[in-house]
Amino acid sequence: xxxxxxxxxxxxxxxxxxxxxxxxxxxxxxxxxxxxxxxxxxxxxxxxxxxxxxxxxxxxxxxxxxxxxxxxxxxxxxxxxxxxxxxxxxxxxxxxxxxxxxxxxxxxxxxxxxxxxxxxxxxxxxxxxxxxxxxxxxxxxxxxxxxxxxxxxxxxxxxxxxxxxxxxxxxxxxxxxxxxxxxxxxxxxxxxxxxxxxxxxxxxxxxxxxxxxxxxxxxxxxxxxxxxxxxxxxxxxxxxxxxxxxxxxxxxxxxxxxxxxxxxxxxxxxxxxxxxxxxxxxxxxxxxxxxxxxxxxxxxxxxxxxxxxxxxxxxxxxxxxxxxxxxxxxxxxxxxxxxxxxxxxxxxxxxxxxxxxxxxxxxxxxxxxxxxxxxxxxxxxxxxxxxxxxxxxxxxxxxxxxxxxxxxxxxxxxxxxxxxxxxxxxxxxxxxxxxxxxxxxxxxxxxxxxxxxxxxxxxxxxxxxxxxxxxxxxxxxxxxxxxxxxxxxxxxxxxxxxxxxxxxxxxxxxxxxxxxxxxxxxxxxxxxxxxxxxxxxxxxxxxxxxxxxxxxxxxxxxxxxxxxxxxxxxxxxxxxx
Length: 577
Fold this sequence. Notes:
The chain is α/β, with parallel strands linked by helices. It has helices at 3-10, 42-56, 69-85, 94-106, 119-135, 151-161, 290-308, 326-335, 385-390, 440-447, 466-476, 488-502, and strands spanning 17-19, 29-31, 189-192, 210-213, 220-225, 237-242, 254-258, 261-262, 268-269, 271-275, 316-318, 324-325, 343-352, 357-366, 375-376, 382-384, 403-406, 414-421, 424-430, 451-455, 481-485, 511-516, 521-525, 532-542, 556-567.
């Protein structure tokens, strides 16, 4: 494949949508058929240059020539100067237009496999890529460097603030799935970026502000701008109230939904299990209402956490995988609207009437924005005999069976990223998705969210167990902080089994969560009689450089552990009548 083939593939309608009549009336545009014209929207230019760089593998040549550093410093200055001069939605700087013309007219016939042997082609690609990345600083955030946004970032901000059905001034046809205009999301996706990895040598190491992701058919990724200039209480702290509910799981909550069956070809069709959320009942067996959950447990925990934090409310409340059902979640959201928290992250088990399948979901809801589109789990949990024994499960009468798969639909693979501070983003994962490479991990490594929240139904969150190991991978590269949270019930079941089988000298600790950052990892313990833990984190500036030695001027952030406090408040649902 040649360079020009890639350009045509990525921009089938051409590089520029040219307005007719009103300057930016994007509903009456004609598409320029000439690929000699440079894309005027930086993410489009980034997508094209980045895809060519990535597919050719020439990013391995992006580092400075140590024998001629002055020449590379001159390159960095050119990139900065041209990027600073580009603030026009309809045309590109002369320097960019000339580079693009060179790429198309001079090098358009060059095969991708030959690019690594032609330094001049690499120079054009790296320069276009770097300029597009630099001029996109602030895109997808509500403030930029020095609290100022250029016209491009402002256009994205206005688009993100539109209500459904409102006509945009500057159309981003795939927003919030991609920042591109002329490169469709079914080709590649471009999203904002939080962290530039300082490990390895990939295309991810070559940009500060934009990330190149797989196409939308592989992963339905999104960027949600939810901060709306509300940066917490003006401090660099982030306070999370962890509620490891349920605290007890009745033994018959796990059920056999499909027995193991033998096939004619000699193989076996696996057994499947489902969940009956019997922990969503009160002590006398009545359904637990969202009002009771909020009034008796969540709101008292928020109030006590506020007292223990010196009058400062938690910013977010986090509940583990499958803690709630859909109705309880919707009601809890309403009950928490006046609580002063900014967001709720909760694991939700929902039945989809349309497909007739169960969905293991995560709700990541920000109270001001009302963004409440849930994401589904990407991979099924497989319980083996050892896990079944450790949790005291006995729901299958087949004595020879030793594996059961979670009976959920995994076809809807969506991954929203949330810009919830002017400089900080988060993403939520559900249990098994933390451990599997596809489809989420490449996107997470590209975007580099500052915080990854993993909701689990798992045993104690000890460093040597699988969640700690996989969290350590993300903390190392790209440098995310990772919070894994499980429910107290499965921790207690696992610990009880451990005491019976291994007979330790002292009872194991109730480690319901784990905080992992690049430099350290911490057990988060729930003492007896405590119903929650207040986790306090610190956000600090982080300096980053790309493979080609461009500096981000310390605009990135890194979250680090400050403290944990058990919260003794509220009444557990299984104690309610």
